[in-house]
Design brief:
The protein is an alpha/beta fold and 287 residues long. The protein has a single domain, classed as 2-enoyl-CoA Hydratase, Chain A, domain 1. It is 40% helix and 15% strand. Its cofactor is Zn(2+).
Length: 287
Amino acid sequence: MSLFDWFADHHKKASILRITREAKEIDGLWSKCPECSIVFYRKDLIANSNVCSNCSHHYMIDSERRIAIIADKNSFKPMNENLLPTDPLKFRDRHNYAVRLKDTQSITQLTEAVITGVCQLEGLPLALGVMDFRFMGGSMGSVVGEKITRMIELATYQSYPVLIVCASGGARMQEGVLSLVQMAKISGALSRHREARQLYLPLLTHPTTGGVTASFAMLGDIILAEPKALIGFAGRRVIEQTLREKLPDNFQTSEYLQEHGFVDYIVQRTALKSTLASILRLHGYTA
């Protein structure tokens, strides 16, 4: 076999292997890491909290999976599930907002872009809010703001610490100023929570942007973030055009924000629960 034939045969086998792997990914058996291209058995990936064991890439995960990682088994009790979004402004563009809400609820089996409730974490009490990017990009509408505010107010009354897992594109434009008001409302609830000397921890995940970043995502007593998460207010291109200069390659990543003092600690998802438990105990919370 000539060298040319060897390369041709090798390329053919590699292509067949790639196609086979991609086919198995579609079947849900395997998953290929988008960072290092290593292929994993999906059950092993899930068992590792959806983190690549080769390069530590953190896959985006849904709210149900995040609650399972953080809360003790069967301890999470959701609250305000009856609060449903409406279309107060009768917003119309290419999509009918009311129809889009119903379609998104049907696809995700969620009522809104956040799930709130109380749970235990290694036996410690915790008020937990988890945003889900699948629901209209995790955008913050009036119901999202109301659910988070009610959760914080309950935590203040019960003397519980608060953890909000942030994953959002920002304020929901279809609700206009009603969405923007939520920034102030949640911030006010957090201020009263702090006056009661209770702990608030935001966990910034990929992505955390817009009005969420400009409000409760950055108001934590200790601001946590997952590795390489996109965190910012305006988009990179907008900032570059405004400043008329090139930004660093790692701009708006968790690592860049930690280096510049906006993030206190970057925590691996596999170590999240133990890290949170240590922080809660350090601040005097007991089972």
